[in-house]
């Protein structure tokens, strides 16, 4: 599964650094598509062009304050992910809570960066997230798994996909778990020199089904394949800049 991805990544690395304006335009393109799609998956009704306008600081008529904040907050969260990558900081609970705090800033300040204190259910899923009193322990187990020597030997695509899947299965926050999990997935990929990926809203059903299978059957292959396909898409975009 990863032979082609590795070859493309090696070719990209061999041609780095890319020209400054190319890197800037690729970043802007992916930041827009990532923000639009991740919010659309969660029900935000802004179109991709409306999302672009909001990122430029313009208000879109007929759309809620929450929808505008979801765009601005996600941009800020991406910038925070980029800072973590630049500083080469190890993953921590503090970082995860900070990411979530940025996602819910001004939307639900009471629960921003705070583990949930009530039971939640995932719409359309068989999997039921753990009770609130188990969250801290399960998050510690997740970070423990992440630090294991065997986990570090996994391909970054597998490690990122599993980090996303396990995190969203715990569903530690009342809201914003999906966006946070996709930020964590890209954080892991970007740490290893991969471009960020976009889980596209049109693939939402397959994405949800693969996640539910991972949670109920501990079978991650379908989800890893979805992530790997998006990784290849992003690599192809970057490689098109070389040709």
TrEMBL record:
Keywords: ATP-binding, Nucleotide-binding
Keyword Cytoplasm: no
Annotated positions for site Important for autoinhibition of adenylyltransferase activity: 42
Stretches assigned to the Fido domain: 91-229
PANTHER family named in the record: FIDO DOMAIN-CONTAINING PROTEIN, FIDO DOMAIN-CONTAINING PROTEIN DDB_G0283145
One of the record's GO molecular function terms: ATP binding
Catalytic residue positions: 171
Binding, ATP: 175-182, 207-208
Protein name: Fic family protein
Pfam families: Fic
């Amino acid at each position: 599964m990863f032979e082609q991805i590795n070859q493309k990544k090696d070719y990209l690395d061999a041609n780095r650094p890319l020209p400054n304006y190319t890197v800037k335009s690729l970043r802007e393109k992916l930041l827009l598509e990532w923000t639009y799609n991740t919010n659309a998956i969660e029900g935000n009704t802004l179109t991709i062009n409306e999302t672009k306008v909001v990122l430029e600081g313009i208000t879109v008529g007929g759309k809620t304050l929450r929808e505008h904040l979801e765009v601005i907050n996600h941009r800020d969260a991406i910038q925070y992910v980029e800072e973590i990558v630049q500083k080469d900081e190890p993953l921590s609970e503090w970082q995860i809570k900070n990411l979530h705090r940025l996602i819910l800033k001004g939307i639900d300040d009471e629960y921003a960066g705070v583990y949930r204190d009530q039971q939640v259910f995932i719409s359309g899923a068989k999997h039921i997230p753990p009770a609130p009193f188990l969250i801290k322990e399960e998050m510690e187990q997740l970070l423990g798994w992440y630090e294991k020597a065997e986990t570090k030997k996994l391909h970054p695509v597998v490690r990122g996909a599993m980090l996303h899947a396990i995190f969203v299965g715990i569903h530690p926050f009342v809201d914003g778990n999906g966006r946070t999990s996709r930020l964590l997935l890209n954080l892991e990929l970007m740490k290893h020199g991969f471009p960020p990926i976009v889980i596209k809203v049109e693939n939402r059903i397959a994405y949800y089904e693969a996640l539910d299978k991972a949670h109920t059957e501990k079978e991650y292959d379908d989800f890893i394949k979805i992530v790997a396909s998006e990784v290849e898409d992003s690599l192809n975009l970057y490689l098109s800049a070389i040709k």
